Amino acid sequence: MTTPPLSHLRVLECATFVAGPSCGMTLGQLGAEVLRVDLPQGGSDHQRWPLATSGASLYWANLNKGKRSVTIDYRLPAGRELVVELATRPGAGSGVFVDNLVGRSALTRAELLERRSDMITMRILGFPDGRPAVDYTVNAAVGVPYMTGLAGSGEPVNHVLPAWDLLTGAMAAVGLLAAVTQRQQTGEGADLQIALADVALSGVGALGWLAEALQDGPRAAHGNHVFGSFGTDFATSDGERVMIVALTQGQWQALCDVTGTGAVFDALESALGTDLREESARYELRETIGSILRPWFSARPIAEVREDLDRARVLWGPYRTMSDAAALARQDATSVASEVEQPGIGRMLATTIPVRWNGGTSAPAPAPVLGADTEQVLAEELGLSGAEIGALLQRGVVGVPGRAEAS
Amino acid sequence: MTTPPLSHLRVLECATFVAGPSCGMTLGQLGAEVLRVDLPQGGSDHQRWPLATSGASLYWANLNKGKRSVTIDYRLPAGRELVVELATRPGAGSGVFVDNLVGRSALTRAELLERRSDMITMRILGFPDGRPAVDYTVNAAVGVPYMTGLAGSGEPVNHVLPAWDLLTGAMAAVGLLAAVTQRQQTGEGADLQIALADVALSGVGALGWLAEALQDGPRAAHGNHVFGSFGTDFATSDGERVMIVALTQGQWQALCDVTGTGAVFDALESALGTDLREESARYELRETIGSILRPWFSARPIAEVREDLDRARVLWGPYRTMSDAAALARQDATSVASEVEQPGIGRMLATTIPVRWNGGTSAPAPAPVLGADTEQVLAEELGLSGAEIGALLQRGVVGVPGRAEAS
């Protein structure tokens, strides 16, 4: 990345867990200055697992990379006033506020508009009416767990990846940037809102799954097969496992060629009067195809499978443990993952935004220590004197790292 | 939404499957004009499952809502020239190009820059070096399937939701919009790239999972439990199922109160010398907590469970089938889902973008019929005469709906 595209943007973030913080981090990784505001003792996500051996949260450190951290007790009137001032700072790229607060703590758009009429505000919610929800509950409610896992068990399987959280963060960033482009042209702000439950519904809708379910009833879980085409997993002779996918005719042909099963499938097509060049036919015969291919994989170690599949241009991937994936990423100098020196943790493998700009990636930055930027931000952004900051500290309106840990 | 924020933007999309098309659709749902270019016979995703009873693809119809469809054989020199002309159309909001083509078909950034020096181009890839990958293979390679599903099985469980595809589409839109804000300020274009494999690595990195795995080794699958806190599923007396989550102290207290188990957990804390107000303690004792809570759920039908949990403000959600989720969304007038009249399919439940603008959602628009806008776009955007368009049709350089079906 030559010049970070969002270096003109200054975002105030008052959010916890995954969606809000990942939205702010994404904007920061594109060059925006992102101030995260927390209560002096930290947000409810500050100690979230996984933890480093030091006890610090690897989760928090990785969702807040590159931000500045300011701690303010926004439940107090004086603290709330500071947050309003920071949110409405002057400047063409300021006046961008993201939060997921509800109830009494939430700053209203109206009180921000009193100070700055072109505010862009994004509220991240569970349900659009403000009721709480988290990834695990919206995923269950939208029908995905009953489609996941082994065929026939009837038991729902939750996804482990908080996919809706991550997607909510990215879509919130999309909404904010759309509003920024508009404000650059018209001078007008925007009142934005995104709810996890809407993201999940919109997501399954985009795949055609809502329309499908109304037409055909719920789709049953079908193990690791790829719906509507051919794709499944195979074990190798040395206990490794690979995911094989044949979406296109070329991929299917490559798979038949490398496994030497072309004549078997030709004969099968004749016997059953089907055409396996069609994706739908491959899906319908997925168990049969899998059974015919399986011996080829189970007779070979992963090294041989890898070489043969790559040479034949089969679409495939190995199953890895997270540890193996991390170790490989650490070795790869072109990867979006690299080590940072994280305060409170030490050397830590961290990742940057996956958007590559002019051929390169930005390096990941470490996360701040909670409250590390409070004094500087109050002085430089709000023009407070050392004595004023000292008084706020003493009254517990704001926090700094030493104090936060002591309290 | 009052004025769509991206109505100044005109995007040319030359992409298939989920990531590219969902990127374009997202921009379109915020007001951009999105032209999707396909080969006259359709892209490899045009017949992708799930299908409507008419045989048309519900998948395609839902990933291409609100776009215009132009069919051009860009493998032919004359077709390629037309795509270059459309991609480099004049206008401050034009010159935005998204594709996932590789090999000979791919338009190079260099040939676009010859016509327009401020092009914003986004290439969507499997791996950053251009090798193919799909959601199923990158998910396996990044370690998530070995963390998913029942404890102890050791078998990987694929997610069914193509989460990395959807996230790639959203992050591609973020990158494009960041570039648009920059171009509005500096007049400079941008060379952008995003790879599915990078998105997956960046995503698990953001959650702290790479750092965790290097420190602690791979995390084992642990069923439907929420990692690092308390959350799991329970069956009700009438065969329904609910997901219960207690991340905060308040949520945990509400759960103890409504189930009348407070004294049991108090005694358990004394007996084991632990403090269940701590998330980590709840996670460590997740099986025990689940066993103590289970009888309360299994003794009650879902209607009673729902009423009690809502009254007590427990964080929970029902498990639903996709059909039930769709039926509920269809009834809800405030939902992001509503019915559209989809050409080739009929009434179809479709969803719009989950970003709510000034309190409202935009209505979903139907997808175009393949090639429906070819003639109008060639005439209006490129100034071609009817005779010129007729000649291109005859030579098979471009397509229109009738021809496409006949070929």
UniProtKB/TrEMBL annotation, chains A, B:
Transmembrane segments: none annotated. InterPro entries: CoA-transferase_III, CoA-Trfase_fam_III, CoA-Trfase_III_dom3_sf, CoA-Trfase_III_dom_1_sf. Pfam families: CoA_transf_3 (PF02515). GO terms for molecular function: catalytic activity. This is Dehydratase.
